Automatic annotation (TrEMBL):
Residues 43-140, 200-282 form the Rhodanese domain. Keywords: Repeat, Transferase. PROSITE patterns: RHODANESE_3 (PS50206). The keyword Repeat applies. This is Sulfurtransferase. Gene3D superfamilies: Rhodanese-like domain. InterPro entries: Rhodanese-like_dom (IPR001763), Rhodanese-like_dom_sf (IPR036873), TST/MPST-like (IPR045078). It comes from the Bacteria. It holds the Pfam family Rhodanese. The keyword Transferase applies.
C-alpha cells in the first residue's frame, strides 16, 4: 500500500465512505533557556484554515501520557487506540494524515498508528501548504465535534516500533543497529540550537536531519541516498531519536517509504536521555 497521497488524489477522494482526514499539528517553540521545546495547541489555526471535513487530533490532549517524565510520552496502547476511536478511526477507516508544520506531526501520528497495528493510513505529501499551493479548497470556522468510530479497532501492537532508553543504551556500537539523530547537524555536534538539557548527541550515533526529508515529498530513492550518506545500512535495525520523538517519527516514516523494515522511535529521545548525566553524550564532529 502507498504510504503517501498527493493533494490532487486526496481531493478526488474527499467525501467517500470510510475516508477520515486528520490534522495532527502541534505548534512548538524553544523554551527561554533553550533546553527544550514548549508546545501549544494548533486548534485556532485549524479553525482558521483546514482541509474540508478534516478533524484535528491534538496530541497535547490525546497522545501524551503526562505521568511519564518526558514530553509526548506515548500513552498505553489501549489509551492511544481509544483516542483515535474518539476521533473516528475504527475498523474499515481509511486514514489520511496531514499537518501545517513541515511533516513531523503527521509522521508522528502515522508512527503511532503503525505501532498500534493500524495500517490503512497515508500521509499527505507536502501537508496543508501543498494543498493550498495546488489551489484546493479550504474551510474555516468552528469544526464540528468528531464522530466516534462505530467499531473501534483493537490494537495489534508492534512493540518493536518503539524503543526505550535501555534498548538504546544496549544498542550503542552493536553491528547491524544504527541509532540515528533526526535533529540538525549543529545540534548533533553541539554547536547550537536547542540543547535538550545537554548539548550534542547520544554517544556514537549518526545524523540524518528530518528537515532534509521535505514533508514526505522526497522520492524514496532520494531518501535512500541520504540514508547511505549517513551510514545507515538497508538491513540495519534503525532506532531514531530527536528531542521528543517527533522528528524521529518523520525519519523512520521516510525510511519505511524507502524500503527499510526494522525501524523504531526512541520515545523518550533527548528529553529523557539528556536529563540523566549517567547516560553518554558527546559533542564535536561526528
Amino acid at each position: 500500500m502507498m504510504l503517501t497521497v498527493t493533494p490532487a488524489a486526496l481531493a478526488a477522494e474527499l467525501g467517500t465512505p470510510g475516508l477520515l482526514v486528520l490534522d495532527g499539528s502541534v505548534f512548538q517553540r524553544p523554551s527561554p533557556d533553550n533546553a527544550t521545546m514548549l508546545s501549544e495547541t494548533a486548534r485556532a489555526s485549524f479553525e482558521k484554515s483546514r482541509i474540508p471535513g478534516s478533524i484535528h487530533l491534538d496530541a497535547i490532549d490525546w497522545l501524551w501520557d503526562r505521568s511519564r517524565p518526558f514530553r509526548f510520552a506515548l500513552p498505553s496502547p489501549e489509551a492511544a487506540a481509544a483516542a483515535f476511536a474518539a476521533h473516528g478511526v475504527g475498523e474499515g477507516s481509511r486514514v489520511v494524515l496531514y499537518d501545517r508544520v513541515g511533516g513531523n506531526w503527521a509522521a508522528r501520528t502515522f508512527w503511532t498508528l503503525h505501532w498500534l497495528g493500524f495500517d490503512d493510513v497515508r500521509v499527505l505529501e507536502g501537508g496543508l501548504a501543498a494543498w493550498k499551493a495546488a489551489g484546493l479548497p479550504v474551510e474555516s470556522g468552528p469544526a464540528p465535534a468528531p464522530v466516534p468510530a462505530a467499531k473501534p479497532f483493537a490494537p495489534r501492537l508492534r512493540a518493536a516500533a518503539i524503543a526505550d532508553r535501555e534498548e538504546v543504551l544496549a544498542a550503542l556500537g552493536v553491528p547491524g543497529v544504527a541509532v540515528v539523530n533526526a535533529l540538525s547537524a549543529e545540534q548533533h555536534e553541539g554547536r547550537g540550537g536547542l540543547t535538550y538539557h545537554r548539548p550534542g548527541r547520544i554517544a556514537g550515533t549518526r545524523n540524518l536531519p528530518a528537515p532534509l526529508l521535505a514533508d514526505a515529498t522526497l522520492p524514496p530513492e532520494a531518501v535512500a541516498a541520504l540514508a547511505a550518506q549517513a551510514g545507515i545500512g538497508r538491513e540495519d535495525r534503525v532506532i531514531a531519536y530527536c528531542g521528543g520523538g517527533i522528528a524521529a517519527s518523520n525519519l523512520v516514516f521516510n525510511l519505511k517509504r524507502a524500503g527499510w523494515r526494522d525501524l523504531a522511535v526512541y520515545d523518550g529521545s533527548l528529553d529523557e536521555w539528556g536529563r540523566d548525566a549517567a547516560l553518554p553524550m558527546e559533542t564535536g564532529p561526528a
